[in-house]
Amino acid sequence: MAQKPSIPKGTRDFNPEQVAKRNYIFNTIRGAFETFGFQPIETPSFENSETLMGKYGDEGDRLIFKILNSGDFLGKANEEAYEAKDSLKLTPSISEKALRYDLTVPFARYVVQHQNEIEFPFKRYQIQPVWRADRPQKGRFREFYQCDADVVGSDSLWQEVEFIQLYDAVFSALKLEGVTIKINNRKILSGIAEVIGAHDKLIDFTVALDKLDKIGEEKVKEEMRSKGIPEEGIEKLQPLFSLSGAFETQIEVLKSILSTSEEGMKGIEELAFIDNAISELGLQTAALQLDVTLARGLNYYTGAIFEVAAPDSVKMGSIGGGGRYDDLTGIFGLKNVSGVGISFGLDRIYLVLEELNKFPETVTKNVEVLFINFGDKEALFSLKAIKTLRENGINAELYPDAAKMKKQMNHANKRAIPYVVLVGESEMTSNTFTLKTMKTGEQHTLTLEDLIAHI
């Protein structure tokens, strides 16, 4: 007995309806990317291991899918490592390539490799799958798509302004209201750590602060004390624990806290510039919110940090994020290439649109009309009409077999095809078509021109 087929854990099959809905999101994002002047690039699904390894920390390295060398991969294996069963030492000798973990490191490699062909500032977008050997769970997969846009070669804060507009344009096009674009700045977090005497504990400080809305003020203070942050410094943080209100109001509070930190004040200046520009330009559906606890990718980002929250009515993590980095290509030897980028969380956006019933009905529209097959003569007559319908932008097809009428009608119903066309002897003689609306059962005999107009 044949074994029942299956797919690897953390991967998914998508049915026609799901693919159509995913394509709707892809096309919306891609359209916005191109409207804003971003150019598409693609990189290979796998890279040389040396390109990826060591770029994501120990945890990232562990989650990278390694590809075994072709042929007798054990022939060149490190025998000492093999005998000792030391996988870390063995892997480089049996695997020289790996599936990409994200789109950012391959993009950095692309910029360095093609720097003489690229016109800077370079605005690129990429919509491609990535792979991570993570433990699968709800909303987390081993194979998934990333939708990234970056600008490299410019320090201008107008780029951050445009990325906020880009987020707003995409979510407006998806009719997704109530989205919040949260923003912070790495310089502000560094400035706060400096002011409270915890500059050498920046990570500990921000990890604790990030938990404020989850565990509350007292627990955050306890965690900071346990990490060696002085009590005097924690007292200086008191205004942060209740920081809320309008963007401008929060900026004023931050100014009073960070008045002695040059780096912190620089971060405030950058945020104020972005907020003033967005206030002048306006947003369609999204809201811009300052969140001083936001600290994603702290070791990576050097300026603005973005995170996009779904509408409050949906329990969902972030549906987008990004920020400013000063040395994207430094890992490959090309120093001082500043950039800023954002990413859209396709799978989470899909779940949000599904839960809020925001997918347009036309998204899953496939075949609009099915021609019933009564035999070879009728089929040929029908195919001539179908050709004309297709030329007029109508999705049409012929049932391939001259099966029983009931079977063909059931096929149309199961595929939710709204119209069927019946062509028999009388229709061929009069050069007409009998159109049946499946939902109501109504029938009309029409010329080909009227048929096109009706559909």
Automatic annotation (TrEMBL):
Record-linked Gene3D superfamilies: Anticodon-binding domain, Bira Bifunctional Protein, Domain 2
Record-linked Pfam families: HGTP_anticodon, tRNA-synt_His
Alphabetized InterPro entries for the sequence: aa-tRNA-synth_II (IPR006195), aa-tRNA-synth_II/BPL/LPL (IPR045864), Anticodon-bd (IPR004154), Anticodon-bd_dom_sf (IPR036621), His-tRNA-ligase (IPR015807), HisRS-like_core (IPR041715), HisRS/HisZ (IPR004516), HisRS_anticodon (IPR033656)
Single GO biological process annotation from the record: histidyl-tRNA aminoacylation
Catalyses which reaction(s): tRNA(His) + L-histidine + ATP = L-histidyl-tRNA(His) + AMP + diphosphate + H(+)
Primary subcellular site in the record, as a coarse category: cytoplasm
EC number: 6.1.1.21
Class of the enzyme per the UniProt entry, highest EC level: ligase
Domain Aminoacyl-transfer RNA synthetases class-II family profile: from-to ranges: 1-400
Superkingdom in the source lineage: Bacteria
GO cellular component: cytoplasm
Keyword line: Aminoacyl-tRNA synthetase, ATP-binding, Cytoplasm, Ligase, Nucleotide-binding, Protein biosynthesis
Binding site for L-histidine: 102-104, 132, 146, 150, 296, 300-301
Locations listed in the record: Cytoplasm
GO molecular function, one term: histidine-tRNA ligase activity
PANTHER family, per database record: HISTIDINE--TRNA LIGASE (PTHR11476:SF7), HISTIDYL-TRNA SYNTHETASE (PTHR11476)
HAMAP family referenced in this protein's UniProt entry, alphabetically: His_tRNA_synth (MF_00127)
NCBIfam families reported for this sequence: hisS
Subunit structure, interactors included: Homodimer.
Family affiliation: Belongs to the class-II aminoacyl-tRNA synthetase family.
The name this protein goes by in its record: Histidine--tRNA ligase
